From TrEMBL:
ATP binds at K17, L18, S19, G20, G61, R65, T170, Y176, D179. SUPFAM superfamilies: Carbamate kinase-like (SSF53633). It comes from Gemmata obscuriglobus. UMP binds at G60, D82, T143, G144, N145, P146, F147, V148, T149, T150. Keywords: ATP-binding, Cytoplasm, Kinase, Nucleotide-binding, Pyrimidine biosynthesis, Transferase. This is Uridylate kinase. The gene is pyrH. One of its GO terms (cellular component) is cytoplasm. Inhibited by UTP. Belongs to the UMP kinase family.
């Protein structure tokens, strides 16, 4: 079917990078907003119902960021702070998992930080098998290592799981040449190459994550998840956000 058909599936398997803020209250308030979590889960449920294999890397910024301790006197060391952030992603993963399963969607939560009482350990072959059975796989715990962002975890898991695209869900509807919140004249890019992102020093993802996607030839789609049906439009290949390819 042509890409212009809104029901067409452009991708078979996708890796969605979802920030912790997507489940939060916003405005600097910490916590898990159950209403926001339900809205996100409903979109994911509709995507999975269409037969798309969906893996989700979840952040933890709505609960805790390791970087918030970096300006202190190292009472809490940076590595410890990062591990605390990884635990926050597991908490978000649990909330998203239960919300999805309350909607009748089969899921599996896997963590790069081992905690078998609440989540499976991340095992690539097991994750692939879950995807093949059309289970939504929620990937928490980052990479399991400090000093690595969840963007890098998304690039790593997207490459490992042979995703067709990495969907980076943000609060902005694509990549701009300046911050559109601060600059009303900022221009949006519809398409970019990896080289253009480097040359223009655009903050698509952190450099480690971006380089991994470039080497793996894994395209990135940056879009605003708050727009109505945005995730569904993204997997259908409808014009949305900014596409970064080789």
């Amino acid at each position: 079917m042509p890409d212009s058909d809104p029901t067409a599936l452009k991708y078979k398997r996708v890796l969605l990078k979802l920030s912790g803020e997507a489940l939060g209250f916003g405005g600097g308030k910490l916590g898990i907003n159950l209403d926001e979590t339900k809205l996100i889960a409903a979109q994911l449920a509709r995507v999975a119902a269409r037969g798309i294999q969906l893996a989700v890397v979840i952040g933890g910024g709505n609960l805790l960021r390791g970087a918030q301790f970096s300006a202190g006197d190292e009472q809490i060391r940076p590595a410890t702070a990062d591990y605390m952030g990884m635990l926050a992603t597991v908490m978000n993963g649990l909330a998203l998992q239960d919300t999805l399963e309350a909607m009748g969607v089969e899921t599996r939560l896997q963590s790069a930080v081992r905690m078998e009482t609440v989540a499976e350990p991340y095992i690539r072959r097991r994750a692939l098998r879950h995807l093949e059975k059309n289970r939504i796989v929620i990937l928490a715990g980052g990479t399991g290592n400090p000093f690595v962002t969840t963007d890098t975890a998304a690039a790593l898991r997207g490459t490992e799981l042979q995703a067709d695209v990495l969907l980076k869900a943000t609060k902005v509807d694509g990549v701009y040449n300046a911050d559109p919140v601060k600059n009303q004249y900022a221009e949006k890019f519809e398409r970019l190459t990896f080289d253009q992102v480097i040359q223009k020093q655009l903050g698509v993802m952190d450099i480690g994550a971006f380089e991994m996607c470039r080497l793996a030839k894994l395209p990135i789609l940056v879009f605003n998840y708050r727009q109505d049906g945005a995730i569904e439009k993204a997997v259908s290949g409808q014009p949305i956000g900014t596409v970064v390819t080789g």
